[in-house]
Write a structure and sequence with these properties.
With 498 residues, this protein is an alpha/beta fold. The protein is built from 13 helices and 17 strands. It starts with a helix and ends in a 13-residue tail after the last helix.
Amino acid sequence: MGRFKVVLLLLGLGSFFMHLNFASALNSSIPQYTLGFLTPAAASEIPTSLAIEWESAFRVAVEVENSKLGRAYKLVPHSEYSDCDWQTAYHGALAIATLDNNTYPPVIGVVGPACSGAAMSSVQPLKPLNISMVSFAATAEPITVDRAWFFNLFRTVYNDKFQAQAVAASITKLNMTSATLIHTNQYYSANLAQDINETINHGQVNLEVVMLASGTNSSIDSDQLKTVLDNHTPTDFVILVLHPQEAHDVFEAVNAQGRLEFPWWYFGTDGVTALDPSDENQTDPTLVSKLLGEIGLSPYGGDYSNNSICDTYFTYWKTANYPGLPVSGLNKSRSYTPYLIDTVRLYFEAVDSVVSLNLPITAGNVLQALNGSSAAGILQFDGCTGVVAIDPVTGSRDAALQPPIYDLVSFTSDSWEAKGRIQSDNFVTLQPLQRPNSQFAPNSAYNGPNPNKSKTGAIVGGVFGVLAAAGVGVGAYFLYKQKRRGRYNPTSFVRVMD
């Protein structure tokens, strides 16, 4: 029943925004172009509240940018569902690419999707039309391997080798001397787990890496998980490298096994911290209460202080009264929302560049601008997440101009709160941390560089995205690349919907 309500909510939200689009089109006499968005579907791998937040953030960013003076064009937003599934994402991108120009303005680009496998698949139907796609959350490192194959795929986020460095920095800072890293065969999960395993100092930490299989009616095999944790010391860390739905299923399983009690402590990657503790359709309130204090990594949440670049968008968001406005406060994590805002602005900057060269606004010319191959050179601007520029060699965020920043976050009743900041794999700040359910337990807090215990525990992370990377040319490509890199981990998980 909960999911049915969510479907109706998202459908209603889509209809509401579509009505605004048509009203805007009728009242505008300037040239218009379509900016597509591959948004998460209802009951997908992305939490419902986050999917609503992203949909609203996309519309907010488009409307704010359209309102800026001096632009003699308008971008009209159009959304299609993607999920983290390669098939759904492919067909969503195909639907955008084949929009009827008698009804919709010409498409100049596509934002999204969030998940890496879905991004690698959905970019394919855009290729023949030279339509670019910029993802705000697809982090898997292999996307940058071959620009000849992914010539029209870009991202405003950093690849997972930088997140692996942030995990390694956390291992050192929290003095993890022994840990179990749990991942699945999902594209994001398997590749990030390998990045972490290659990055850490194995002389410093004894790391066991375990791949969980999927269960009959769950994304994970709870019996296998029990066997793994039976051989694990509770005071050691458990590191979760999972997407949100898998993290939810793991937390439910370890709760049933009595392994959310003190001294168990979990640390997760950005997929786990995308799990929304306030999402009643996703998380049982009784489970949420036991997760308070779990920790993990989240992408930098952006600057929302008064007069900041981000503040402009969030002030408009409040005024427009769109749903999903994130919790305010500089210590609140916002899973890739500021990167989504910066991605929308990147498209406007690309169109501005095309206009400045007196070229027609076409998908091909916008693609050249994003590639830095036009006469205007490489695009660069100050965004919500710092200096935004695309490295033309990789198509990813240029880490030389803006060093990668990650937040170490802690689970609260309504959000993930930033407790520390990691920049260029070094901690800049770190507040005291408290083990979950440990208020009456001695020596349970981490109070800075010298933790009270040499071993702790961990689980809370995962990434936005990632399910499948196969199909429609993508599968053939990676089979070819498998021998060269030895990193191809095709998905075997088929989620059973209830």
